[in-house]
Target: L-rhamnose isomerase / sugar isomerase
Amino acid sequence: MSNPANVKAALRSLEIETPSWAYGNSGTRFKVFAQAGVPRTPQEKIADAAQVHRFTGSAPSVALHIPWDRVDDFTELAKHAHDQGVRLGAINSNVFQDDDYKLGSVTNPDPRVRRKAVRHLLDCVDIMDATGSRDLKLWFSDGINYPGQDDLRDRQDRLAEALREVYDRLGPHQRMLLEYKLFEPAFYATDVPDWGTSYAHCVELGPRATVCIDTGHHAPGTNIEFIVAFLLRAGRLGAFDFNSRFYADDDLMAGAADPFQLFRIMYEIVRADALSSGIAFMLDQCHNIEAKVPAVIRSVLNVQEATAKALLVDRDALRAAQLEGDVLGANAVLMDAYNTDVRPLLAELRTEDGLDPDPVGAYRRSGYGERVVAERVGGQQAGWNA
Ligand SMILES: [Mn+2]
Model:
């Protein structure tokens, strides 16, 4: 794969999905700093996402979040996206913002609340039918704060029952992505805390249930590329939510905190020839203090750079060194690729594809940011903080 033409061809096949919520105002539990010109509607979020695709050529779809992006006519919204040059991607469900969900959604001890949560998930599948989306993303905030608060095993039974009902509702070309998270908002026990729990539920459900790895949802020091390798081997890696973390679920730009980790993850993808095998490479991040559209562009570039380096790994040389037990040699092959400056290669690729070699600079020069500041008054919250 070290041949530059092959590397470029592989990079052209890489599609990164950006999240609608990255374009709206967001913040921490302490404060949301509103920015001028942020989108007021789902349509305007899609327009911003289209800018990211326009300048990178690699972000052709945008994920929606329900209810934050609820509209009366999703078929019309899909057409709007198409007119802007992008398409609608995964539907992200939300069963964590209603007062009813204080003690959980699909694992709540109250059957009425569980029914309400499942109803919402089924509504999301209806929306997928209208938008043409393939993927339903499930992340549950469900969990408990204190030992004894609820029965750990009963909650797994309730989770399995809810997942089964939703899985059986999926159309033949639709998939379920089950995301996990170590902790937060629950602190003692989370009902889907890790990839193993997600994987086990997916296996129980069927082949169209797959695991979503959010890179920010692990304990510090977790070897995420091992999880990637394991799930790829098992055929159960459905998606990534890329972002960066320093401490907890920081949701910073992908590749900002640890570009080496992103490279190691993308190497496992390349190793499995899985760059264009249906895995959804999504961003799940928010830009609390930085300008949003250029931050998303930067994140896309970071994923591209990590992927380019992964593609440059001399796999034959690596294999040979591994089989010979050449510890230092094998490590050196990997590090040679990681230490390559791939920016000239990516600039060349963009120029060949009629793009500006500097997407962030080109976006700034386009005047789009200034134009929307003038046009949009009273930008919308991304959704989760007041
Ligand atoms: Mn996520």
Q: What stands out?
A: The two ends are 48 Å apart (CA to CA). The mean pLDDT is 96.
